[in-house]
Amino acid sequence: MKPILRPSLYGMTLETIVTQLSESLGWGAMAVAVPVRCFTYDPSIKSSLKFLRRTPWAREKVEQLYLQHARSLVDKGTHD
């Protein structure tokens, strides 16, 4: 039996999380999931990091989005 892989944020920087989400989901999908201006108006990694570091509730939502996305990738891999 294989152990169940559970994605975590251990060792992940906020920059890595935002970069991976923007590359895999795109800014539009991120803006739908977490409707904040830094994702909807002229989005960039730099502006997102600045906002998320100062806004704990938004950072938490982005981290949860990352975990959901990572879980969906793990689930797809186990069902192939």
Architecture overview:
The chain is mainly α and 80 residues long. It has one domain (18-79): Orthogonal Bundle (Transcription Termination Factor Rho, Rna-binding Domain, Chain A, Domain 1), CATH 1.10.720. Helix content is 70%, strand content 0%. The chain is built from 5 helices and no strands. The longest helix is centred in the last third of the chain and has 24 residues, at 56-79. It is globular and about 35 Å long. The protein starts with 13 loop residues before the first helix and ends with a helix.
Indicate the topology.
Blueprint: H1 14-24, H2 27-33, H3 37-40, H4 45-54, H5 56-79
Gross morphology is globular
CATH class: Mainly Alpha
How would a textbook summarize the main sheet?
none
Share of residues in helices: over 70%
Query: What is the CATH T-level topology?
Result: Transcription Termination Factor Rho, Rna-binding Domain, Chain A, Domain 1
From the N-terminal CA to the C-terminal CA, the straight-line distance is 16 Å
Order of helix and strand elements from N to C terminus:
HHHHH
Report the uncertain regions. none
Provide the domain count: 1
In terms of quaternary structure, what is this?
single chain
Named at the architecture level, the CATH assignment is Orthogonal Bundle
CATH superfamily: SAP domain
Radius of gyration: 13 Å
Content of β-strand = under 5%
Counting helices, strands and paired strands, the structural category is mainly alpha
User: Could you give the count of β-strands?
Assistant: 0
Number of helices: 5
- Kindly state the mean pLDDT as a whole number? 89
